[in-house]
Amino acid sequence: MGGMTGKTEQTAATAEALGYEQARDELIEVVRRLEAGGTTLEESLALWERGEELAGVCRRWLEGARARLDAALAREAGAEAAEEG
């Protein structure tokens, strides 16, 4: 594994490695390019696939955040119940 070589390595990064904001921003860009048209069928398919991948990343980030929130709320509810008892 070599050191980071700036932008080229970032564009080659798998969607999985992206943070939520990065994935969301790139997804917005993908949608914008698809809506703008003027892409070949091949380009559109590649964009669509990338969009699906990015949407999946965003969904997993949000599900993870929801799970952490639920766990925190459950801990809080448990603490309150213990105080009342």
What's the topology here?
Blueprint: H1 7-12, H2 20-36, H3 41-84
Strand and helix order: HHH
Q: Could you say which overall geometry the principal axes of the C-alpha atoms support?
A: rod-shaped
Q: If you average the pLDDT, what whole number results?
A: 86
Main sheet properties: none
Please state the CA-atom Rg, rounded to the nearest Å.
20 Å
N/C terminus separation: 55 Å
Give the helix/strand class.
mainly alpha
Describe the 3D structure.
This protein has 85 residues and is mainly alpha-helical. The chain has one domain (20-84). It is built from 3 helices and no strands. The chain has helices at residues 7-12, 20-36, 41-84. Helix 2 packs antiparallel against helix 3 (41-84). The N and C termini lie far apart (55 Å). Mean pLDDT is 86; it is low at 4-10.
